[in-house]
Amino acid sequence: MSDYNAPDPHAWLENLDDPAAAEWVAAQNARAQALLDADPRFAGLRDEILAHLRDTRQIPFCAEHDGWLYNFHQDEAHPRGIYRRTTLAAYRAAEQDWQIVLDIDALAEAADEDWYLDGVSHCTLAPLQAMVHLTAGGGDAGIAREYDLAAGTWRPDGFSFPEGKSHVAWRDPDSAWVCPGWPGAPLTRSGYPREVWLVERGEEGRHAWSQVFAAGEDAMMVAAWRFLDADGAPLDLIECSDSFYSKTYHLIDDELETQALPLPAKAELEAYLHGDLIVKLAEDWDAAGTVYPAGALLAVALEPLRQGRIAAQLLVAPQPRLAVESVETTRASVVVNLLDQVKSRLLAFDKADGVWRERALPTPSGGVIEFADQPWDSDILCYSFSDFLTPTGLYRLDVASGAQECLRRQPEAFDPADFVAEQWQARAPDGESIPYFVVRRRDAPLDGSTPTLLYGYGGFEVPMMPYYVENFGPHWLQRGGAFALACIRGGGEFGPGWHQAAQGVNRQVGFDDFIAVAEDMVARGLTAPARLGIEGGSNGGLLVGACMTQRPELFGAVVCEVPLLDMLRYTELLAGASWIDEYGDPDDPAQRPALAAYSPYHRLRGDLAYPLALFTTSAKDDRVHPAHARKMVARMRELGHDALLLETEAGGHSGNAGQEQTAQELARVLVYLYQRLMD
């Protein structure tokens, strides 16, 4: 095991501008590609996955603005993508009647930049005015520039903000809230904005800038935006994050004066409707003698709050295996997406005579619902529904009447008749029951022979939920494999308590849960260590890296994607300092031993046998530094172990790249899993 305080011999791989580091990465890529791309199955897999991505029967998810349905689309002719629109009638009829309003390939070529679309933000009250967010190579940093969708051009006097991790949001058609994140602007230690400005349109682009708020240097970040109530009344707010989970909300009045709201530090403002703030608690809140528990969803009246008084109504009370997953508002109602035993159901809340009342909504059950769109000034809500074996359907629901229709359904990628999806339970070392899902052949023998891939995340209160396995169905299940999804502590499957149980110095709890799930599948006879692979990305990359170094004999394959692995230096790399709330501070003598105990980079040993692991990252990942994966592979080689590294040039942390790269990356992972678990 490493000396935690010794100089790092592989620190040179942290330098993204070092030609020697680039040469080393190129050699690793060539080595991994020689093993994977040369496999006779690779080319066919890549082509099949690409064809599936480009299948015009795939659901084009849309955002509706002023009667138009807008969609981002990539295909062979437009690898970077186009932003296009159609009418609801044409969409219902599945007609390919799309108007292109923005061509990202053309923009990139004209600017000679490696642009990818990071989002289009329509001004709510003037939706033909759009803020276009473009990112170079798929990273988090990007530019924001105003586009006239009616004219099909950049607006000559429009807003334009340079590249950075900025936050830009419309205030009204002629002004925007801007939190500068570009070079030269005051930034937090994490590299995020710490100031809020109001930028008002001026003639010939000479806009007026007014500073509204400045956070302290030790804050994590600030953001600002405008809510519009059902009657159009505006509410301007600043969210100042002192850390990842502690924040203060500030009102902005017409004179640009700010007022901090007396809400608890660990609370999330989810929505605003009928004069009430919809607030989700991550800690108990004693509100004027009434204690609301962590996990509760409240409606808090704004006007009394301005005066320092609390007038709140409890909408959803926490339960042991239930959590509020997301919240949306329509013109009249608050809609809550609940996770109940990691399956979705929707509730609507309507306000009459000052009281919010609950009613159920008629939606499909037994799977997972995700909000897709809510057209402004309407009671329409669009959502998707799927489970492991049910293709995604896109539904349009009238929340007021309960009437709904299925607008589109994704085509079946495989015949589900031979498969079953089940929820099993494992027992953690401390006795907690850990749910996980298994998708397998109905007739899979329980003799340990089934190649099985276990996926997990376990962090940041993000739940792992069932989803349609459109690529793993035909390319893994139908080849005899099984797929498992672990709902371990650290995630958000059962609310803040489930997350906090594996937060900070308690991180090992989540790793123990994941290992318990793996052991449970082996004990049941579904699979065996030589047939068991694990996969995770970002925080999930830390998860599988930690489990590999702690129990290397339990796994035959490890896919570790855009991971954190050096937990003693993570705060010094890119956005790492923003996650101290989640992991703990390695510079704190009281917390450092806990991080050192599981840090995968430091736990590697020369006298253990590790599975041949595949590490992936991106040179354009400006959130989790690619050095985590680079150094892990270098350290394993130094200790005499083999390991594979694939580092893409584009894509960033979220894989925001073209479809060809996406298909290529997934095909390589599948080939790796075939070689390690099936051959």
Automatic annotation (TrEMBL):
Keyword Hydrolase in annotation: yes
SUPFAM superfamilies: alpha/beta-Hydrolases (SSF53474), Peptidase/esterase 'gauge' domain (SSF50993)
Domain of life: Bacteria
Keyword entries, A-Z: Hydrolase, Protease, Serine protease
GO molecular function, one term: oligopeptidase activity
Listed GO CC annotations: cytosol
Organism this protein belongs to: Chromobacterium rhizoryzae
Name of this chain's protein: S9 family peptidase
Classification via PANTHER family: PROLYL ENDOPEPTIDASE
Start and end residues of each Peptidase S9A N-terminal domain: 5-172, 315-409
Domain Peptidase S9 prolyl oligopeptidase catalytic, first and last residues per copy: 474-676
A GO BP annotation: proteolysis
